[in-house]
Amino acid sequence: MKAPKKSKAGFTLAELMVASSIAALVSAVGFTLLIFFNSAWRGISLRLQADRDVNFAMNYLVYGKGSRLGLRCAVQGADFLKLTQNSGGWSLKYQTRVADGQVNTISWSATDQKLRLNPGDHVLGSDISQATMVLSRQPKAGSDSPIIMALVTLRVDRVKGRFKARREIASEVYFRNELL
User: Fold this and answer.
1) Considering the domain boundaries, does residue 37 fall inside one?
2) Interior angle at CA 92, CA 88 and CA 95, nearest 5
3) Residue numbers of the domain that contains 118
């Protein structure tokens, strides 16, 4: 009678330990990369949100919101533009060039950090941590009367957990419109 042959199928203990070590190493690297990319995505997402908010606020300020026209439609002249600075904010009252002579006020308050367009109390931007408005006169080529220009700077600061984002935008708006 023949002796049964031993099966050589299977793995040795050393082979199993090497395979387990490699699997554990790959899992550890994969988990570390997952944590890193998730963290990076949260920071990028916060910066994108701050970018979007500050860009929308500037766009609404310059072009208006709803039926209320923004600074781009304002009429130049001391009678039509009035900037008031106060502690913790500012407001700019202006008249637009349209036939009905819309009179709007854009204001910012450091207390509630909102940029508003009135009448209608339209919120142009929230979480605006800093907003500056400066009116100046620029010489107009071929004319004795200067062009009035507004320099507007808006900043949004966001904090979410350990992530921080600060986005700032500035724009110059020239009041070239004459009253109809």
Assistant:
1) no
2) 165
3) 43-175
DSSP single-letter state for residue 73: G
Residue 110 belongs to a domain:
yes
**4 Cβ partners below 8 Å, 6+ apart?**
none
| 114 DSSP β-pair partners | 109
> Would you place residue 77 in the very low, low, confident or very high pLDDT band (cuts 50, 70, 90)?
low
Which residues on adjacent β-strands are paired with residue 143?
Answer: none
Q: How far apart are CA 42 and CA 79, in angstroms?
A: 48
What does the alpha-carbon distance between residue 37 and residue 40 come to, in Å, rounded to a whole number? Answer: 5
Instruction: Look up tokens 């308050």; give the residue.
Output: 109
Under 8 Å between Cβ of 136 and 152? no
Structurally, the chain folds into a number of domains equal to 1
The SS3 of residue 141 is coil
What pLDDT digit, counting tens, does each position of 118-157 carry? 988 899 998 899 999 998 887 777 777 778 888 999 999 9
pLDDT tens for each residue of 8-51: 778 899 999 999 999 999 999 999 999 999 999 999 999 999 99
